[in-house]
Amino acid sequence: MTDEQDKTPAEPLRVGVLGARGRMGIEVCKAVDAADDLELAASIDQGDSRSAVSAAEVVVDFTTPDVVMDNLRWCIDQGISAVVGTTGFTEQRLEQVRGWLADKPGVGVVIAPNFGIGAVLMMQFAARAARHFESVEIIEQHHPRKLDAPSGTATHTARQIARARAEAGLGPVPDATKDEVSGARGADIDGVRVHAVRATGLVAHQEVLFGTTGETLTIRHDSYDRASFMPGVLLAVRAVRNRPGLTVGLDALLD
Ligand SMILES: NC(=O)C1=CN([C@@H]2O[C@H](COP(=O)(O)OP(=O)(O)OC[C@H]3O[C@@H](n4cnc5c(N)ncnc54)[C@H](OP(=O)(O)O)[C@@H]3O)[C@@H](O)[C@H]2O)C=CC1
Ligand SMILES: O=C(O)C1=N[C@H](C(=O)O)C[C@H](O)C1
């Protein structure tokens, strides 16, 4: 039979969701259900047994920073590829994941601080602008039920900006503050000040403010609905098994 004659539809990819009853998990389950090429094989939340997820080929994790490493270790041990949106990934944690993956060469993991395509572009544009401005501050704004501050997106953006500034030979951001009420100047992430705002009505928003003599540049992204993260999540779900090892961020998948 030629490929042309073989019209058998491909089996849908079996996806498991961890954190399935959370704000993001609910949205991911809906998106997977709605996709013809994906099947929701298991949806697990706090207190459920993880064993149901063994049937999945790809696991999506939107849980909490304190449980995500244990989940990830379990997936890798089971030989299941994973797409992770949960925050809390320090360089040390990423290194640990790389170590686990070294023993499982067929397994892929994508960890992205933000799956919104606009947010990924905002981070790229900010990294590109960074070397042209002596001043930079990040203001992130989120719903008040968010557990971590500053956000994973803001932390990632600050690190990328810091790297671009170092490569360009820029020194510290100018700031004459001598007398400070604790916290007034925000958190210092690799030399970049990050301010975290929490308010009912917000979803996920970030502004990167750059300044130099006589001008400022503001790069802003807004997620008004968690549906905004789904194209990125599904892109990673479909790609992850063909990307053994660890992929951090969506940039490589978008390109
Ligand atoms: N990368 C991205 O694009 C995005 C990332 N995020 C991140 O995703 C994470 C989740 O966000 P959000 O959905 O708003 O948070 P929620 O608190 O709404 O959801 C987390 C869910 O995980 C559950 N959970 C806790 N422990 C476990 C466990 N061991 N196994 C399975 N499920 C568990 C929680 O249960 P319970 O409530 O009972 O504890 C809850 O239902 C956060 O870190 C957030 O920052 C959010 C949006 C986009
Ligand atoms: O908790 C959230 O809501 C979000 N978390 C991620 C982060 O911390 O950056 C991504 C997005 O900002 C929404």
TrEMBL record:
EC number of the protein: 1.17.1.8
Keyword NAD applies: yes
PROSITE patterns reported for this sequence: DAPB
Gene Ontology cellular-component terms listed: cytosol
Catalytic residues, chain numbering: H142 (proton donor/acceptor), K146 (proton donor)
Sequence segments annotated as region (Disordered): 165-184
GO BP, sorted A to Z: diaminopimelate biosynthetic process; lysine biosynthetic process via diaminopimelate
Domain Dihydrodipicolinate reductase C-terminal: 118-253
Catalytic activity: (S)-2,3,4,5-tetrahydrodipicolinate + NAD(+) + H2O = (2S,4S)-4-hydroxy-2,3,4,5-tetrahydrodipicolinate + NADH + H(+); (S)-2,3,4,5-tetrahydrodipicolinate + NADP(+) + H2O = (2S,4S)-4-hydroxy-2,3,4,5-tetrahydrodipicolinate + NADPH + H(+)
Biological or metabolic pathway of the protein: Amino-acid biosynthesis; L-lysine biosynthesis via DAP pathway; (S)-tetrahydrodipicolinate from L-aspartate: step 4/4
NCBIfam families membership: dapB
Protein name (database record): 4-hydroxy-tetrahydrodipicolinate reductase
Organism: Micromonospora jinlongensis
